[in-house]
Amino acid sequence: MSFEVYNPRPQQTQHRYTSDQATFLVENVNGRSTQELTDMFNNYFGINLTLAQIKAYKKNHGLTSGLDGRFRSGHTPFNKGKKGVGGWEPTQFKKGNRPHNYKPVGTERVNGNDYVDIKIADPNKWKGKHILIWEERHGPVPKGHVVIFGDGNRRNFEPDNLILVSRGQLAILNKKNLIQNDAKLTKTGIIIADIFKKISDRKPRRKG
């Protein structure tokens, strides 16, 4: 007689969002797909949340991207029957008209995490200025990597101050406080972080 072995599916660890992370999602959700928002979120915070985790957060907190403006069956628009303030009128969205708060491509803004973003496309697509400057010289940021400010100053966009690190390196840099106020010292800190990682990799794992 044979028995089927039951292997329960491992549960995904629940991420506790900080106030900065929550603000980041609120300020950057508009005009972005969940995949794009996930990549951007991970890039800024040096972590590796899944698309499903970000999607769940959006659903639980009522965040929408605005990319799909269709109304679902049975849904009543908030401005039905209203005119004037907040209500739709036939002349409100004439072809060629733009909202009063429209920002042209190339506009800079400071997001909720004190990073400078640049609008790169309509209707509302933004990207970190430091990332754009780094990519202009080196090409797209590789998957699993982020661009950091060598001296910790988020307004210093000198190319030599923008350093590419892996998320693993960033985790050690933050844990060991190796990001200094001088890019050269931070680059030395990256070497130290790599040494810590090698030591950790060589440690024998305890058997359960």
TrEMBL record:
Q: Which InterPro entries has this protein been placed in? A: His-Me_finger_sf, HNH_nuc
Q: What Gene3D superfamilies is this protein classified in?
A: 3.90.75.20
According to the record, the signal peptide region is: none
Transmembrane feature ranges: none
Q: Which domain of life is it from?
A: Bacteria
UniProt-listed Pfam families: HNH_3
Q: Tell me where in this chain the HNH nuclease domain is found.
A: 127-169
Give the start-end ranges of region Disordered. 73-104
This chain's protein is named Phage protein
From which organism does this entry originate? Desulforamulus ruminis (strain ATCC 23193 / DSM 2154 / NCIMB 8452 / DL)
Q: What is the lineage of its organism?
A: Bacteria, Bacillati, Bacillota, Clostridia, Eubacteriales
